[in-house]
Amino acid sequence: MVVLLALVAAVQSAGLETYLPKSLFQIVFPKALPIYSYENMIAVSKIYPAFANTGDVDVDKREVAAFLGQIALESGYLQYVEEIKKPTMCEASAHYPCAPGKQYFGRGPIQLSWNYNYKNFGIAAGKDLVTNPDLVAQDPQLVWWSAYWFWNVDQWKGNIHDVVGQPGGFAYTTYIINGGLECGPNPANKGSEKSRIDNYIKFANLLGVAPGDNLSCQTSAYPPSTPWPKRVTTKTPPLDVANHDQDRHHIYPNHDQDRHHIYPNHDQDRHHIYPNHDQDRHYIYPNHDQDHRHPHDQDHLHPHDQDHRHPHDQAHRYPHDDPPPSNQCNGNRNVCFWQLTQQVLPYAKSDCQLFLTFVWCD
């Protein structure tokens, strides 16, 4: 992992740190836990070269503002690395078997939850996170990688990175993260979305970019009746296609029988992918009021309420809509290729071969 960080830090000089210098990070996250170090946040972000680096400054700033706003709500401004209640969050599955005695509650900035999310992220990271789920909250690189993985890799038909710069992009991010509970004309959890929007606007103002219109998904436009925004950079990854439940195929971190939510924390009745939620509320924040799981504000809703992000909700598609590539390089030649995300990476052959999850295409 040390080699990985050294490489990614040298590969790209643009990106997140261009818009979020350490001085600003310390101002907006003054009580961040030590594991959420700024240095690792920046270095690990470069595993996904296009993150905050599209070439359009305003789009990049909005993506950074959206990312910061969402993780601020999910992790209590980086003050929590684990869900407070620590439910087991193991969905019985032949394809995503849980390890004996292990729990898959929310961990990390985005509060990755559920056994299937741990398995799929583990495939990307080259780690057995089903057997060792605590690594997501203990390893200073994996803790950030879990959030970037969820943000940049297709969870169903598309991913947050691809839609965040489009009209109505912020509303889409909330829909992907917790649409079942917070989106639509009469959602169960109205206050949480308001907190997300407030966070986003605050960070957009700090970065000097207009937040744009259509920030709320609490309209009749959700779930979207029009086609999901076209993918721009990341194709649907062929994640463990053979081991997806026939009836679910969810790559999403939190989903249940009835909904298969990709959200990390969801219950039988809700299947939220959000990391912290309880039977009745699924709050991820340690200091939350009855309805608001968010440690900061009554309005801050726990990310795991009711219908969180359920992968089978209308537009939520499992990530196996597209056929796997015809070969491990998908036709690419003389490049470093990441099969999981179907991305061409800007690494020389010698650097590419240092990564277990990347392949060099001759």
UniProtKB/TrEMBL annotation:
The cross-references to Pfam families, in alphabetical order and at most eight, read: Glyco_hydro_19
Is the keyword Disulfide bond assigned to this protein?
yes
Q: Which UniProt keywords apply?
A: Disulfide bond, Plant defense
Give me the ranges of the annotated region Disordered: 218-326
Q: Where's the Glycoside hydrolase family 19 catalytic domain?
A: 34-217
**One Gene Ontology term from the biological process aspect of the record:** chitin catabolic process
Domain of life where this protein originates: Eukaryota
Basic and acidic residues composition-biased segments:
242-323
A molecular function GO annotation:
chitinase activity
- Name of the protein in its database record: Glycoside hydrolase family 19 catalytic domain-containing protein
Organism of this sequence: Aphanomyces astaci (Crayfish plague agent)
